[in-house]
């Protein structure tokens, strides 16, 4: 922990990733370069068994994107097409129907219209439903396009992209995120009876499936090398900004925790395995492929950082079954003590992370670094997710938190929950 707090090597590597490679969308040449770079970095930092495990991922391309409020004169609206949206072979022009909830959508006639979801930010987990499911539900009701108010707490006219998903059997419609300012303008016009009309012109397209990879490196355990503690993050990002906080920073925490553990006078009892997952943002193919290939190995725990690089308060823990949760917390609490020095000794029930989700599903104790997300959701999935937003001190705290927990879970005599129980469950 002391060494994590005393150097900026995680930040130095993150600068390279962001400034020399940039953003890294699934199936892009930039992600391929990052996959090669990550293997070199893992070797440079002393990790063993470094490899890229192939994963097929979707290749989606943004293309041009324009939204125009029609009038005298026409006015541009700032948007970002949503991942997996279709494009508009011919621009779509229609009246905008503004709804704030799914109930309002159900009550509205949206046939031939563009639906705008103007749902204010409550929490990311709650509000993101309008982005992920809203366009599909609007399409089902006959809408010809969808706009979604960006999922963020406030805005400098900044659109936030992200994935949307059309339900099976629903014909996709073009869908884009609009800034909070743009959404509120359209909502005000509609409320004043000045029916807004918008033209959407999107060049997005899906180009099938291409080969990508999860990048893996290890600090082999000294006594029980077959037992694994995963340190996870995702190397892919959206195709705007630099993917600095989402999730370049998380990857640097995992990598540098492993580096520090690898230079300790002896290796921990179990293997620490760093996994840079691919395709978290628009498919989760890397997470699914890893669980399929490795789910039968005894995983003692998985730790992920994928909620930015704000100051960590400790860990969120997803322990299943629920009946084991309290005893796990009780057993782990003493190990959180040293982290209290940087106010990172918290341990609470919560979400582990998207990439370790499939491991949590099969009963692996899953932990997410519990970052302060106040600043994160202002820049998440935007052009502004760049290296200059990283607070070097908070990043060091993140590395320290990851290091302490990786070491604890890999070294502690007993597994988080009995490893025989775990193995039995995985064999089932
Ligand atoms: Zn992420």
Write the layout of secondary structure elements.
Blueprint: H1 2-6, H2 9-21, H3 29-44, E1 48-61, E2 65-69, E3 75-77, E4 79-81, E5 92-99, H4 102-107, E6 114-117, H5 124-132, H6 134-140, E7 145-149, E8 175-178, H7 180-191, E9 197-202, E10 205-219, E11 224-234, H8 244-262, E12 270-277, H9 285-294, E13 299-304, E14 312-318, H10 325-336, E15 346-349, H11 357-361, E16 366-371, H12 376-379, H13 392-411, H14 419-427
Parallel strand pairs: 5-6, 6-7, 7-8, 11-12, 11-13, 13-16, 14-15
Antiparallel strand pairs: 1-10, 2-3, 2-9, 4-8, 5-9, 10-12, 14-16
Helix pairs in contact: 2-8, 8-13
The structure holds zinc ion (ZN).
Q: Short summary of the structure?
A:
An 8-stranded mixed sheet has the order 1-10-12-11-13-16-14-15, sandwiched between helices. With 428 residues, it is an alpha/beta fold. It is 34% helix and 25% strand.
